[in-house]
Automatic annotation (TrEMBL):
This is DUF368 domain-containing protein. Pfam families: VCA0040-like. Coiled coil: none annotated. The chain crosses the membrane at residues 37-63, 83-105, 111-132, 144-162, 174-193, 226-247, 259-276, 288-316. PANTHER family: INTEGRAL MEMBRANE PROTEIN (PTHR37308), POLYPRENYL-PHOSPHATE TRANSPORTER (PTHR37308:SF1). Keywords: Membrane, Transmembrane, Transmembrane helix. The lineage of its organism: Bacteria, Bacillati, Bacillota, Clostridia, Christensenellales. It comes from Candidatus Borkfalkia excrementigallinarum.
Amino acid sequence: MTHPENAAHEPERAEEFEKLAEQLKYPSRRAAAKGGIMGALIGLAVIVPGISGSTIAIIFKLYDKLLFAVGNLFRRFKQCIRFLLPIAVGLIVGVIAGFFSVKYLLELQPFAVISLFAGLMAGALPAVFGPIRSTRPTAKRGGLFAAGLLLPVAVSVISVLISAKTHSFENLRFYHYLLFLLLGYIVAITQLVPGLSASAMLMMFGYFRPLLDSVSLTYWQSNPMVFLVYACLAAGFLLGLFTFSKFLSKISQNYKTPFYYTLAGLSCGSVVTMFYNPDIVPVYRQWAGGGFAAELCLGIVLFLAGALVSFVLVCFEQKKENRR
């Protein structure tokens, strides 16, 4: 039986739902291209340690729409798929580009690449604070921001301290495939919650490097069962994407301001974790032997350059919106 209070809010919720569904339409081809670029950056986020795909979505001001579209894909299939298609295409391009270019650069100059991406993220943080700029800070909201800031940092520290030994995809048993389903679900959550890194999670379980190394024709020929691993990861990922996005979408609609204070903290925390995760810590250990000045200077320059570029782009975008 429906509670009278809930029944009274039903028309209001239905109206809000229809409004959100209507906002999924891209107003122009340029807006659709923007969705594709965001998808490509989210694809790169899977490869670069510390980057959260959802932080990128917030910067592009598409986070709420993305949560709604994924969570209600089967309820409003036509509208949602039109919104998600450019993002999905961009994501595939980003993942492929990441595997064959960023992966190589990370092996060549890991600190420099991380610094560049961290700078791009840091410079775009004003866009993350946009939804809460006009709100009044309170102790509760400050606490949510602090909790959001500390969560990714804590996860990153734990992933460094208890990072599992590297595993392989050979001689797998039935329970391994169940683990891959769970791992896929967890990776989906990292792409929906800002500040959580898919690569850091995979490293914590000891499967990040094996997964990267498995993407080659030679490996596929010698171990075709790896495709079953991919299938389990994909199934868990899709399940997590649909269920958790629906959960977050409801929270964002019902508790918008507290939700965005938490997101702002998570986004700031994600920049911190880019410089402390299982993939970058070994670089610092190498620096203990000396001779790191050139690499450090290059990283600082790239961080500042990335921050400047993204900050200018965010300011330009905000000026355009203010003219409308």
